[in-house]
Amino acid sequence: MSESSTADITAEQVAHLAHLARIDLTPEELQRLTGELAQIVHAVEKVTEVATSDIPATSHPVALHNVFRPDVVGATLSTEAALAGAPEHDGSRFKVSAILGEEQ
Amino acid sequence: MNELTRMPASEQARLLADREVSARELTAAHLDRIAAVDEQVHAFLHVNERALEVAESIDARRAAGEAVGELAGVPVAIKDVLCTSDMPTTAASRILEGWVPPYDATVVSRLREAGLVPLGKTNMDEFAMGSSTEHSAYGPTRNPWDLERIPGGSGGGSSAAVAAFEAAIALGSDTGGSIRQPAAVTGTVGMKPTYGGVSRYGAIALASSLDQVGPVSRTVLDSAMLHDIIGGHDPRDSTSLTDQWPSFTEAARAGARAEAFKGLRVGVVKQLSGGEGFQAGVTQRFEAALTAMSDAGAEIVEVDAPNFEYAIAAYYLILPAEASSNLAKFDSVRFGLRVTPEGGGTVEDVMSATRAAGFGDEVKRRVILGTYALSAGYYDAYYGSAQKVRTLIQRDFDAAFRQADVLVSPSAPTTAFKLGERVDDPLAMYLNDLTTIPANLAGVPGIALPIGLAPEDGLPVGIQFMAPQRADARLYEVGAALESLLEQAWGHTLISQAPDLSLGEMLAATEGAV
């Protein structure tokens, strides 16, 4: 990996991204990912060489427009089926720990 | 090895229709084969305990004179990225360990309706992120040609299962080559259909604008037959095409019979067919295949696709961006793993601890990369530019298809590499999909099939054909034509040269006994 590219991404930035992505990283992971991300970002930056302003973006490989279905109730999962894979539930709802922390 | 397991699905189907063999016998033969070799190969994450029961019900329907589908009673392996209501579906991730979905993927429902017998769920790179299956949370799959080597990825479980004769046919999914690259390194066949040709409903999404489910097999005809079953419009997938598709089975049969190469313009994509990173034996076999097609009447032309050079870069922005969004659903609330940090915490703390424990290194890397690419201030430069490259690649395809009826390249730049060789070097791993990624970015179909063994290592080499969007049938016709041309020249199928793993095991057992 080149020295110049590693300067582009800092450990603080990766820590922030990991927080946004809701993934706790160990200090070792943080250090390794900082180096790897810098290397990968350096490689993918190549796209900017040809992406000039006159070229339209493509978000979908086969253009489709306004896919609708009739507004009628179809088959849906029962509450029981929807909850079957949940780590915790009370029989009718998913259960989670506190939504807000003390600082909020 | 039981001869039944060595037959293609089309032959198995014929024996079933003629009542020469029952679905139960056929399924039992495959379960025996799995029991004999899967400890070494590790193609399966889960084997269906009810497979024999399902097979018996097909036999009963047939005995009662019920009209059943052509492949009814034929066992099939299913990549673990596809939801099955009767088997765990983990996408090879710890975060979904033991999860049994409350519904079937549409492709799985269609297999069941057609009377196929689900054998089990096949191994893969976690959430289909990888090219070797080494990123499976449950340990890698091994290549049946050489157990020290990778079977490709992400669908290495499906490719190894068919190459090791554990199943004649399997389902895969292909986001940047996950059906075609494993086919290349295991001497098997795999097809990525036109985007929207096969439903994605119930396929655990990696990158929604690139993912496509498709067939894996040992013969072109078998892939075509499986594609006929799983393909077609599904109102549950809003990106599913409403086209009426021709019979792919007919296309494959026509290709094997007729002189499909007479006057066919075969375009060799300059950017995908040699140079740095291409193994000598791959290039040699590829050129031999071109010569064979040319001798059969094809017109070989070189086509230039200058923007393909940017395909990997665009792919590794679009894929992580879409994946970071798709994988947000693994939040420890509705399904899968929950890890509570010591001393408790808010739902966000639980989520972060769960994702730390439940995701492997490659998943973390790509989710964080995708989060970066979508961040304010970087979005236009990275994600926006990648989407423009996608336009340029589509234009290159359009220009190429004005010069050629089909495009060709090797399906992977190298033969199977050794386990562990590239797992610590993400960029080297990403280069495995050099030849397959452009088709996903443009939504065009691509088929991979074997064209021989590389002289330097005796391992399989594959060729990839690509056609314009919606011209999937052309690939089955041309693929079957090349397959039959090569097999006539060799006097045998390529897969017949794969080592018989059960023999090795028998010898080992004998030695152990002495």
TrEMBL record, chain A:
Coiled-coil intervals, chain numbering: none
Reaction equations catalysed: L-glutamyl-tRNA(Gln) + L-glutamine + ATP + H2O = L-glutaminyl-tRNA(Gln) + L-glutamate + ADP + phosphate + H(+); L-aspartyl-tRNA(Asn) + L-glutamine + ATP + H2O = L-asparaginyl-tRNA(Asn) + L-glutamate + ADP + phosphate + 2 H(+)
InterPro entries: Asp/Glu-ADT_sf_sub_c, GatC
Any matching Pfam family: GatC
GO biological process, one term: glutaminyl-tRNAGln biosynthesis via transamidation
Swiss-Prot/TrEMBL keywords: ATP-binding, Ligase, Nucleotide-binding, Protein biosynthesis
Top-rank lineage group of the source organism: Bacteria
Magnesium in keyword set: no
GO molecular function list: ATP binding; glutaminyl-tRNA synthase (glutamine-hydrolyzing) activity
Broad class of enzyme this protein falls into: ligase
Entry's EC annotation: 6.3.5.-
Protein family membership: Belongs to the GatC family.
Quaternary structure and partners: Heterotrimer of A, B and C subunits.
Primary role: Allows the formation of correctly charged Asn-tRNA(Asn) or Gln-tRNA(Gln) through the transamidation of misacylated Asp-tRNA(Asn) or Glu-tRNA(Gln) in organisms which lack either or both of asparaginyl-tRNA or glutaminyl-tRNA synthetases. The reaction takes place in the presence of glutamine and ATP through an activated phospho-Asp-tRNA(Asn) or phospho-Glu-tRNA(Gln).
Name of the protein described by the UniProt record: Aspartyl/glutamyl-tRNA(Asn/Gln) amidotransferase subunit C
Lineage of the organism: Bacteria, Bacillati, Actinomycetota, Actinomycetes, Micrococcales
TrEMBL record, chain B:
Catalytic reactions on record: L-glutamyl-tRNA(Gln) + L-glutamine + ATP + H2O = L-glutaminyl-tRNA(Gln) + L-glutamate + ADP + phosphate + H(+)
Key word ATP-binding present: yes
Pfam families, per database record: Amidase
Active-site annotation: 79 (charge relay system), 154 (charge relay system), 178 (acyl-ester intermediate)
Segments forming domain Amidase: 25-475
Uppermost EC category: ligase
GO BP terms: translation
Keyword hit for Repeat: no
PANTHER family recorded: GLUTAMYL-TRNA(GLN) AMIDOTRANSFERASE SUBUNIT A, TRANSAMIDASE
The family this protein is said to belong to: Belongs to the amidase family. GatA subfamily.
Name under which the protein is recorded: Glutamyl-tRNA(Gln) amidotransferase subunit A
Organism: Ruicaihuangia caeni
Gene: gatA
